[in-house]
Amino acid sequence: MSDLLTQAIRTNRKDVFARYGQRPSYSVTERAIRYSLRTFAYFTVFVTVAIIIILLVDASEFFARVSILRFFTEREWLPFGEPKKLGVLPLISGTIMIAFGASLVAIPLGLGSAVFLTQYTSKRFQRIMGPILEILGGIPTVVYGFFALTTLTPLLRVVFPSIEVFNALSAAIVVGIAILPMVASLSADALQVVPKAISNAGYALGMSKFHVVTRIMVPAAFSGIVASFLLAFARAVGETMAVTIAAGSTPSLAWDYLKSVQTMTAFIVQISMGDTAAGSIEYYTIYAIGITLFLLTFAFNFAATAIIRRFRDVYQ
Prior knowledge:
Largest sheet: 2 strands, antiparallel
Oligomer: single chain
Order of helices and strands: HHHHEEHHHHHHHHHH
Helix content: over 70%
Low-confidence stretches: none
Shape: globular
CATH class of the largest domain: Mainly Alpha
CATH topology of the largest domain: MetI-like fold
Number of strands: 2
Strand content: under 5%
């Protein structure tokens, strides 16, 4: 019987019990927990599907009035003017611009922090500094926005006198600080999964600490590290309040970090202030932008999952 249970744990439990003609018995408590967890899982799926349906239905109202080709190819975004210019490219450009700049801040600092905490410090120091690093992720992003507007931009003006009050550079920096804990935490988890025997083999061959980390540990944890990069990038794409306050509301295709830009999330905030009439073309732009943002973040999350499956190393 013990062999049967061991096999059920290692493989598919239902297949094993079906093969041997036996079924597992559950207590009342186990069944209650089992059905509760199943209900929570189904509810999560239901909420996700409901959001997608709402976005699709209301976005279809927008695309019934504006062609998809026009929406994704026009180079100007002026939904309140006459004639209306409804090309989403400036908003996509501003969103990618902020996310790219934030990644340049978060990826090297986050990976460096993960390597330092997991490879160069003691367990005690790691237990102390880990939660301190996580505090950055708990600060409300609206605070980051005001910090960028009132503190960071004046400091940047010393180096770049032509920088505008609302600019993409300060927004990218504070968003990078906000997503830094995600990169550091996920990268540290990926490095800790690598068996100690692998690094010890490098030391046995006479490799230095630096070479063990850069040539053995980081490549062995490559899938988890890259996945953390992509997930952090997707998080930066969906950032709202920090970029709304710090980057301004000027849709532009020019990749100038010293000037104001507008992201897709910032535009949704602008429309949601209550001044737009329900049922108008301006109102339905919320859902058109929302479904575009959903597809963009879904693509990055899907890419992260694919990379994990493609390059994952399973250690026994």
